[in-house]
Structure formats: C-alpha cells, structure tokens
Amino acid sequence: TYVVVENCIKCKYMDCVEVCPVDCFYEGENMLVIHPDECIDCGVCEPECPAEAIKPDTESGLDQWLKLNAEYAKSWPNITVKRDPPADAKEHDGEAGKLDKYFS
Ligand code: SF4
Ligand code: F3S
C-alpha cells in the first residue's frame, strides 16, 4: 500500500484523489489517508502530491503513518473530487511537528 504521511497535514492539496483508480482516499479535517486494504499499489498518486506526502510502505520508518492511515480510513468519509486547498497550505508545507500541532 501507499501511505499518506505528516506533510499532508494542513497542506491537503487533494491532487491525489483525482488520479487514484480505486478511489481509496479518505478525508479528515486537515489531512487525507489511504485505505491500505483498497490501495492496489499502482503508485500514480505519489508524484502528484505537491507536498511529497505520499510514500510506498516499502520505505522504512513509516510504521506510525501506516497505523494512522489504517485507523482513520475506517471512519473518515471517502473523497474522490479535489476542492481548493487551504489558503495557507504553502505556509505549512515542510513545517515540522504538524502531527502534534494540528492533526484532526
Ligand atoms: Fe490509489 Fe494507486 Fe495511490 Fe494506491 S497507489 S492510493 S491505488 S493512486
Ligand atoms: Fe495530502 Fe498530497 Fe493528497 S498534500 S491531500 S497527500 S495531494
């Protein structure tokens, strides 16, 4: 599966949802997650994310994010259509500690 990681938080560009062939993105207030049982590992979303916030689970160090994606994909609503990203998305791109500061 592919995994949405910390830099999505508060950036939420949503380019990813437009390209996913199986519509497996789910939406929280400040970030999206990928449903690990629905993702078919096609990889097309990874280069589409302007925040570089999508990684293959073959990368090391993603355990926390794998867990978070799996957990929230169960309860958050599905998202398949991109809207305007947050107005301050650029200011939060690359910011450290976003999980603790803003996650929802
Ligand atoms: Fe969707 Fe493919 Fe990205 Fe998985 S890797 S979330 S199937 S676009
Ligand atoms: Fe997040 Fe990147 Fe998608 S910022 S909403 S994973 S395009």
Automatic annotation (TrEMBL):
> Which classification does the entry list for the species?
Bacteria, Pseudomonadati, Pseudomonadota, Alphaproteobacteria, Hyphomicrobiales
InterPro entries, A to Z: 4Fe4S_Fe-S-bd, 4Fe4S_Fe_S_CS, 7Fe_ferredoxin, Fd_C, FdxA, RnfB_subfamily
- The coiled-coil regions, if any, are none
User: Which SUPFAM superfamilies has this protein been placed in?
Assistant: 4Fe-4S ferredoxins
Q: Which UniProt keywords apply?
A: 3Fe-4S, 4Fe-4S, Electron transport, Iron, Iron-sulfur, Metal-binding, Repeat, Transport
Gene3D superfamilies assigned to the protein according to its UniProt record, in alphabetical order: 3.30.70.20
Supply the name of the protein: Ferredoxin
Q: What are the boundaries of the region Disordered?
A: 79-104
Obligatory cofactor(s): [4Fe-4S] cluster; [3Fe-4S] cluster
Instruction: Give all residue intervals belonging to the 4Fe-4S ferredoxin-type domain.
Output: 1-29, 30-59
Q: Name one GO molecular function term.
A: 3 iron, 4 sulfur cluster binding
Output compositional bias ranges, type Basic and acidic residues: 81-101
What the protein does?
Ferredoxins are iron-sulfur proteins that transfer electrons in a wide variety of metabolic reactions.
- Alphabetical list of Pfam families matching this protein: DUF3470, Fer4
